[in-house]
Every structure is written in structure tokens, then in C-alpha cells.
Amino acid sequence: MLEPLFKYINDHQNQFVQRLKEWVAIKSDSGDHTKWGQVETMLNMTAELIQKMGGKVELADSGTHQLPSGETVSLPPVILGEFTKDPEKATLCIYGHVDVQPAMMEDGWTTDPFNLTEIRGNLYGRGATDNKGPVLAWLHAVESYQATNTEIPVNIKLIIEGLEEVGSYGLLKLVKEKKDSFFADVDFIVISDNVWATTSPALTYGTRGSSYFFVEVSGPKLDMHSGVYGGSIHEPMSDLIALLGSLLDHTGKIQVPGLSDDVTPLTEEEKKLYENIKFDLEEMKNAVGVKQFLQDTKEDVLMARWRYPSLSIHGIQGAFSEPGSKTIIPRKVTGKFSVRQVPNMDPQDVERKVKEHLEQVFSTQNSPNRLKVTATVSAKPWLANLGDSQYIAGQKAVKDVFGVEPELIREGSTIPIAQNLQEETGKSVMMLPIGAHDDGEHSQNEKISRYNYIAGTKLFAAYFYELSLIK
Amino acid sequence: MLEPLFKYINDHQNQFVQRLKEWVAIKSDSGDHTKWGQVETMLNMTAELIQKMGGKVELADSGTHQLPSGETVSLPPVILGEFTKDPEKATLCIYGHVDVQPAMMEDGWTTDPFNLTEIRGNLYGRGATDNKGPVLAWLHAVESYQATNTEIPVNIKLIIEGLEEVGSYGLLKLVKEKKDSFFADVDFIVISDNVWATTSPALTYGTRGSSYFFVEVSGPKLDMHSGVYGGSIHEPMSDLIALLGSLLDHTGKIQVPGLSDDVTPLTEEEKKLYENIKFDLEEMKNAVGVKQFLQDTKEDVLMARWRYPSLSIHGIQGAFSEPGSKTIIPRKVTGKFSVRQVPNMDPQDVERKVKEHLEQVFSTQNSPNRLKVTATVSAKPWLANLGDSQYIAGQKAVKDVFGVEPELIREGSTIPIAQNLQEETGKSVMMLPIGAHDDGEHSQNEKISRYNYIAGTKLFAAYFYELSLIK
């Protein structure tokens, strides 16, 4: 049954790579709302491809969003797609996104991030693995059925957005609105927007949540000259450094009081899952390029990444950030950090505790400056039931293509839509990654290997088949 | 004697403003070495004007400079200018610079920083007061003598550079080379590259020194995704925040051990100088837009700015600094701060103590990351002798133009050339500012008032005259 599909996919891999090259060339970076025109271009290109394949497409209005500046902006639409409907078959809804993280040569890319470049079997480019490659692999899996005149054994629906990298503004509201229409006949929801944990294929059953914090300290009317005023001014930058410095100790432990109180205790059963994962700590150190992690054992590192909260400081806006030297006292600086939450932490509660902590620290500074803390993108952590039937189908499909059992893993990063879709629709949600652990999502030199891209397309084709056998 | 000069200057003020507009239009920002072409354009324009006025110009080679990156770059030339020489007259050498600080509308300018714009008597534009306006005022003072057929009573030499804002690379070496040629017959050196301390005209007899520090912390090979790796990695950014946080306490006191040991003790005589200055603390709070300074009295604020050291944190390179949100763990971040030194601190000693302190703090972090501390632009503090004859001439010239005695002030910011010229040439150096205290050098909306620009031109014309009477 699967052989002709796999052969078609093998035979057409160069076309599939060429199409990914065309998609990567669109700079659909959603990080800056003034550039959302490119995101819309990418969404339109995706919608056209689905329509060309015979799918129906609705470009659903996802409303507006208020930026931290107070400005309200219209959001790019969300693609709701559907291939021919057979009421006898199970219905699978595939989620994906076609926006990307920012990327510039100056950040240290070896090749142009928006020109997909193949080097020794790897396809380098922004979005190659996160998430343009996987979205195309789904569409190419459908194409393999169509081109070989094989009936697709499940009904396929698609929900594809363009704002995942900034927190899927508007998507949750849309899902709520479409619960009783688009989602009414959906049986399973599948997401391929993460990577394997090791060199082995994996199914993902949980993700951490995330809250992004903006800590603004403002003081003088204007930027000041540090020679003229240095030593006489409460500098917003030193206030901010003290605030950011109060968040973590040098072991990576979060210093916000009570933040980790609600973390689910570890059971013996869960502990075993980590022991079974073929994660090589030394190999990972080499891949990442660090001499040591904050933890010493494989299990502790995996748990720190997947089932415990973390806090990372990303940067400062408003201070001097260019190369060279500038003797400035910035008038207003905004520190940016995020907290990854885990079951059973509540984003509202996290936000309150972080704000209270920062306000308390700031009060000890005796500063005449103004503090403003805001938080966005509060995504809850997600945890699925490993007994759901699509997890069984997923395991079989992995075996069909790779000949091994998948690892059952969690993901440290946030796919808010997994939690949102599960909570709002009540359907089973699974994550079925095809990227490798060293793909470098969000990094310089992001890639997907040609092998994973093509094997992933086969995996998705096999998954349609295995899912139809179970329902 | 001075009346025809003053009348000429008054009558030609619109031309003088127009010429400043042409100079401000050249984006001679020296902060980024890849843009030094504009600095050279500005130097050529200056040289042409001097030549048109009958001056001789040498575009002196100032050698090369090694950037923090290790790259070696050729430096723009330095203008050595000279008007007709009469061995019977005293020779005055004027120092100025025609490069500027960076400026962008996005930083919060009300008008285009490179289009000089007059609003209610103020001329807004980058370089208006620092230092294009004063350099032109010197040349226009010469022009007023020439145009009124008045013999200039002193010989005029000029040294004009294009790298002051990044630390006058190459200038010290050039001054050493020219000590026995260009500087041999110079009697006095005058610099107008600072501003009054209050609303009263001033002579400046001291400046603070400066050392600029780059604190680089590097870890992983690439930027990492904070979802995937957050909680397991020693993040370079949290190491850096801890390092920067160790530099100051919340009262602005420098926490580097021993840094202030060599500060000259305050004498009763010096204390009186501060009491005499008509500095209004409340007015300054309003101008700067702060509710309080770190000190409570006028004298303490002035001393904090002029005769005590300070440390300001300017920013971080390599972290996320754009608007919006990005969930990145930066692989390499460079914190930037500077220390203003005062007599009798030694820059070499400051550098050593800061490095030792940072290394000590970093060692307590137990981090596998790499720390690299480099320092540039080590300028020594400068203090002149108030009894020098050009200070007497300066006081008389201020009285000629403004009808009041000047305040005798120091300057918190660094003009390394004052110290360098005094030390290398052994000549008397004076600073004769024409900008007002609220001109906003290095800030958004930098300006010089039309009044100060024109009165400053008269002051310089009067100074030539008074100086000739004393010698």
C-alpha cells in the first residue's frame, strides 16, 4: 500500500526541495508588525498551492491586536483548508505556520538565510525546519496520494497561520469561533512544529508554556551624555540591570518568590520515560558548543528542558546595541525576558508573581525613575494522553518509515496552539516532528536535512494510512 | 576696535547659519568605521573653506587603528591649518572636530537631525553645538577681521579632526610627531568643545578622563532557542547581567574595589569655586526631566559631575535589541560601560582594577562561558592653571561681549585632546565654550541657539584681540 507513495516521494524530492527554496525566499518574519506584508504574501502563496491541489481555502479574518506601544494593528488572515470530504472517513486537522524568526547575515549566518542552500545533505535557510519544511511535507504527502491515484484514507483539514513566532495573535479567538463549524467534524489534530530530541524519531506529548515580559525603566526626558551627567543621575540602565540581575542565581534557579510552587511533582513512572531516551550528553555538549550544562546527568538536563520552568533574558531595547562605542545614558530602556511554564503553573499567577517581585526589587533601589512591567504571549503548558489512538498510529507510521519505535518526548519550547486546540476543541492533539535535534530553529544556520525532509513526507503519508486503520 | 567686527558678525549671521546648515547635512558620524567616508567628506569641506579664506592646509596622515574586532583600519586625516604668520605676534592654535555622534529620527528627534532647523531661536541638528557650530564660529571670527580689513592681532593655527566622538584615534601620535614643527611656535591652545554650566558664560579649566570597557561573555556555538534550551544552559546574558550589576550600587557608588582611592582630596579653596556657580538645581531637574539627582545640594551635584569619578552602563551588543519579542539565548553578548576618571586617577590603573573586579565576580559564577574584557579610549583627566595669561584674556573677552565675569568651571565629559595637548606640547590650554548648558550634546534634539552661535563668534573675535594685548 505505502510503497508507490514512498517511490513517488523519492522520485520527486528535487521538486519538493525546489518548492521549499521558493518558500524560504519569502522573508515572512513576523517579529516586526511593519513587515507583516511579507507574511501575507507567504500565506497567499500557501493558499494558492492548496487550491491548485484541489483543496478549498478560507482566508479567515483573525481580528486585530494591540501592541505594547498601545497601537492597534490588523492581523494577517489564517488559512482554513480542506480536501474532499468523505463522511465515512476520520478527519485529521493539520496545524502549521509559515512565518519565521528574524534572520540577518550579520547575526552570523554562513549562507543567505533567505536563499535555501544545500551543503552536504543539509538544506540551510530560515524556516527550513521551523515550519515551512514540515508544512510543505504535509502538502507533498497529500500530493503523493493524488499523483499515484491512491485514495487518501482520511479527510484532511489544514489550519495554517502567519504569527506563530510572536505568539499566534488572534488564533485562539478564531479557534473558539470555529469550534462548532470548522472543528466540529475533526477527530484528530496533528502538529509538526518541533524537532526530535536525539537522532531517533519521536512523538511529542507535552510542551512548556511561555510568558514574555517587558520591563521598562524610564527617567530623564532625553538620552544624556555620560560625561556631562554621569555620577549625578539615577540611570535607568543601572536600575534595569539590577532588576534583571534579581531574576536568576548563577545556577539558573529562578529567584522570583513562589514561582515554582505549583510544579507537578515527579513520579517514578514519568522518571522512567527520561531514562529510556537515547540522549547523549557529551554529543549534545559538542553540538551546542558548551563545556557543561547546568545539570550533570542526562535525565536532569532533559527534565530541566521539558518539565521544569526556566527564565531567559533575551536583551534590552533602547540601550546602545550597535558595534563601536557610544557614551550615552539612555533615557528609557526595556529589558526582555521570558518564563517557560510547566504543568501545573498558571500564566496569570506567573505574571503576578514576576511583577510583584520586580516592583519589590525596584522599591529597594530608591530610584526616581518609572518602572512599567508588561507581559504578553501567555501560553499555558500542554500535556497529552499517551493512550490516545493517534499516538498508536503515530508509533506505527514511524516504524513503517524508520523501522524503529519512536521516543516519547516532551518539548521545552512553546506551541501554544497545542494547548489551545486541545482545551478549546476537546480533540486529541499530537505532535509529530520531522526535524532533527540539531536543526537550529531560531538560530543562525537553521536547516533541515534533505533526508529528514523527504522521510518526513513519507512519515506523514504513512500516518494518514495508519490512522485510517485505527478509526 | 571690536565694534566693526561685531557689526560685521551681526550683519552676516544668516550666512553663518546657512553655512552651519550645509555642514550639519553631512552625516559625519564617526561611531561606525564603515561610514568614515562621510567623515572624510566633512574634513575636505572644512579644508576647502580654510583654503578659500587664504589659509594653508595640510591633511596630515594619522595612521591606522586596530578595532576591538582585531581589524586594522586607516584613519581619516587631521587638518593642520595656518593663516598668515607674523613672527612679532603671539600664535594661537585652535582645536576642533567635525565628526558627530550617531543620530536617527527613530531615537526620538523632533526634526531631521541632519537638516538644521531653526525653531524659536534655536538651531536644531546633530553637530550644531558639538562641534560644527563652534568650529565655524572660529572661522567666522577670522572672516570678520578679513572682511573688515582689520589685521588679525594674533597668528592663527588650526588642528581639526574627525574622530573625536570615538576617542581621537591617531591624534595623540600626530601631536607627538608635530611637537617640534607645527606646535613649535604655538603659544596658546584653545578648545571650544563643551558648554556653559549654567546660563552664564564660562571658562573651563578641567575635564574628566574616560575609559570605555567592552565585557564580552560567549558560550554556545550559536544563538539558542530559549524554549528548547532554557533552564539547562549557563546563558551568557545572565552572566553578563551579573557582571554589569556588580559595578554600581543604587546610590551610584562604584563598587570596583579601590577605584576611587587616588581621587584628589577636596580643598576649601576649590570648594568655594562650586559655591560661586549660579547653578539652579530645580531648573536643572526640570531641564533634564528627573525628580531628583543622586546628590541633594548644588555643590555636591557639580562635584559629582566634575571632580569625582562615575561609571555609566551604555548598552549590550549581541542581545535582542529590536522592538517586539524574540525568544533567543544569545551566544555572545558584549556589555559596554565607561568610567570617567578624575585627578589623580591613572587610566592604566583603572583598567587593571576593573578587569580584576570583573574576573573575580565571574569566577564566583562558576560559568563554563568565556569572559573577555577590553578597554579603549583611555583619556587622562585634565586640569589647567587658572593663573595662565590666556585665562585672563578669556575673562576679558567674555566681559567685552556679555558684560559679565565668566564662571570658572570644569567639565564632566572628556576632551582627551586638552590633556594630550597640555602634556605633549607643554603649552597653556584653555577651553572657551559657546554652547548653552541645555544644548543636548550626544542627545536627541541637539541644538545651539542662534544667539550663542553669533555671540560666540564675537567672543572669539574679541579673544584674538584681548590675547594680543596680554602677550
TrEMBL record, chains A, B:
Protein name: Uncharacterized protein
Organismal lineage: Eukaryota, Metazoa, Chordata, Craniata, Vertebrata
